[in-house]
Amino acid sequence: xxxxxxxxxxxxxxxxxxxxxxxxxxxxxxxxxxxxxxxxxxxxxxxxxxxxxxxxxxxxxxxxxxxxxxxxxxxxxxxxxxxxxxxxxxxxxxxxxxxxxxxxxxxxxxxxx
Amino acid sequence: xxxxxxxxxxxxxxxxxxxxxxxxxxxxxxxxxxxxxxxxxxxxxxxxxxxxxxxxxxxxxxxxxxxxxxxxxxxxxxxxxxxxxxxxxxxxxxxxxxxxxxxxxxxxxxxxxxxxx
Lengths: 113, 117
Description:
With about 110 residues, chain A is mainly β. Chain A has no helices and eleven strands.
């Protein structure tokens, strides 16, 4: 068990809908990262928060947004969902802002029908 | 631009064979970190090792060993006496860091290892 908790484990929704993925980092970790894993794109970095502030952004779509709350948990919001958004979404956390070992949650599998 | 290449898409071995997973990276940073993660069939990503760009010592942990060579920009992973439980997808990753001070990981495409009994 990595200590990173992601909910829900599975999510099935329809095109055009909006969903929220939740992540609780390991105790004491200030950085939260979101990654998307799909068959065609592999594992892609989406966004990083460090102690409540956005630190880095990857190729995250404008329809996607995230935030990190004062208790350090994070949420990834996906809106106007398309079939191509179906993927495994991982959250990871680390103590440091850079170079740190990232511990990954079990992921949320999103299926857009 | 930073890039990680795992040229081996799939490898199949018989139990007790040794197997090496290749990883080649590209970066202009002088300071960087390299990682290996394991993704078993259950789907989670499990951290295996982190190595910084200034430490070229090879590392051994049980049946696992890693060979880091800056001259060839490679960070290869060897499993000795493979076991069925080693069957998984293995990812090599590069941490960008540098002046942007982020921990963003750039992953290779992964190598699927199948160990047959």
